[in-house]
Design a protein that fits this description.
Elements: E1 3-14, E2 17-29, E3 34-38, H1 45-52, E4 60-65, E5 68-69, H2 75-84, E6 86-89, H3 101-111, H4 116-129, H5 145-157, E7 163-167, H6 175-192, E8 195-200, H7 203-206, E9 211-216, E10 219-222
Parallel strand pairs: 3-8, 3-9, 6-7, 7-8
Antiparallel strand pairs: 1-2, 1-4, 4-5, 9-10
Length: 223
Amino acid sequence: MKIRAVNLTRVFHIGLSRIAAVNDVNLEVNEEKFIAVIGPSGSGKSTLLNLLGLNDYPTSGKMLIDSKDTALLSKKERRKIRLFRIGFVFQTFNLLSTLSALENVELPMSLAGKPLEDQREKAVKLLENVGLAHRLDHRPKELSVGEMQRVAIARSLINNPELIIADEPTGELDSKRANEIVDLLFDLKKRHKTTIIVATHDQEIVEPADEIYKIMDGKLSHR
């Protein structure tokens, strides 16, 4: 999947204030790259990721996927891309508390209408790949923070996405667990040949990245 943002802008109106969370951003992401976007809290990282992942619409500018303007896509087409071509890893994990680790990972395949047998086989394999073979039947409240993040990463891979978007994937982890997640992401990039875009302030992620960008007050620059 090739992504290109052209003069991408997202403005929020809060009271009488106009805030450009993403301000005239130009970005090109090629296949099988690990891209890090760094910046402090409130700099526009999450807003940019939401635009790149088709979870939000720009106020102006264009978001192109494989040279196609995403503004021309229907809601159904956008949802299909999010489900089948993009995997998401959120800082807060977004795991369903009533489901086991295995069931949480299976969920995107279930939404895609894949057979239950295929869901189970693939979800088990992915959880084994992230070191959680012994936690298949555990619910989120029974998992450590690091384990929940691993479940979220496994879930992001279940539909073989071409792109993984991760928002502060190590933000809630101590340095040891953060390093493990960074190593895991790089390993998954090589093994699955997946493009990864990470928003972070964590230098452990930044240094080995293929490309590093800095965002400040909505403005993006190549570092």
